[in-house]
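Chain and backbone:
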Amino acid sequence: MEFIFNTKKNHYEFLNEITSKIKSIDFPDDTDNKKLLSFINNSNDKKIIFPFQLVGKDYNKLYNFYFNIIRQLLNTNLRNNTCYFFTNDPFYLNNKTEFCITFNNVLNLLYKNANENIKIISPLFSLTNVRFSDKNEPGHFPLLENYNNVVFFPYIHYCYKLSQTSFNSKPIQKILLSGAVASEGYPDRFKLQFLANKYPQYIDQHKLSTEQRDKETWSANNTYNVILNSYLVVFYSGVYNTDNNFILLKLYEILGSGALLLLEKKSQNICNSLGLIENKHYLTIDFNEDEFKVMYRIKNILNVNNANHILNVRREGMEFCHKNLNYNFTTKKFLDFVGKKICGYVYMDEEENELNELKLQISNEIKNGNSLELLNTKIVDDVYKSCHNQIHILYDIRNLLQKEKCIYVEIGAWLGDSASLLLNNDHKTDIYCIDSFHNNYIV
């Protein structure tokens, strides 16, 4: 079985990394998709993924390509080949623009087809609490012809390089509300907007359209991320009642900028899935509480008496995000997903392969050696060399280390069990035992 990654889009960090590990195909001059379709028709048992654009520009070109290729594939005998499509957003958009109409048409083609050779990779954790509609209602999920055609990969976003700014030690001492605001789509942002208008001394709002925001994100001056970086706190909430099963790019952008991530409390599960810890990497706020309690929480976060704690949480969140939630994180998650959910095997990177090989070598050495027997040799009468049988592995590890001489340092030598065992090994080892106790008495 061969897995192929179709790269009909611009490459960014994640895709560059993926295509260095997985075979990719591209037909740059294939305007009518004839070359691509010919490749599929002449293939056998292939898994082909068409990625939605994760971060970047030229959305119209991408979705027009998807609309055309999906229609063509629906009229093609795919035999035992399977095509997978990323859906960057899992629900209908507002039908006000040509782009949104094309996007909704793509969703309908994908989700309303019963062909088991055309599947969807959804950015959700699950379909829990998702609203369905057959009328292209914004924020609703298309009705499904076949639930088996959907697989879930919620880690399509990551902390991209442009979002990784330097830590700002003197930010604006306010909470920033950034992103689209709507009473239905973003109800918690809508509530915070009301408070921003009422309490401008505590809350600012960064009002931009999606197109303006994209220009900021990809500007030579890195404008959008610099704006996030300039504030002490930036608010995050989910969209269309998907708080616990859809991670927005903004979460990574906030953490990456070094601003404090202020999370709407019902989104905590997604942070848990990323290894983020409340009060260490982020803080929460509950908009189900009344205005007095919400404002008390906001004032408390901005209080100078809590500055050191806020500083530590900001720094810890930023460092964790830069180190653990970058494109390497998404790459590893994706390769594991491909192995388990698409190709039916467990993916292991080079480091994991090396570790497993080492485990196998040690296991074979133990099976073929006599380390356990040596460890349990009597010294006198009923006194044995050790009561800790697990340390026999040290003898086997020394056999595997083919160095002429090794140095073994043991802190907490007790009766010298380990040292005694290693002295029986034919390979030379310099042994240093450090212990402040002797025969259970302080010396």
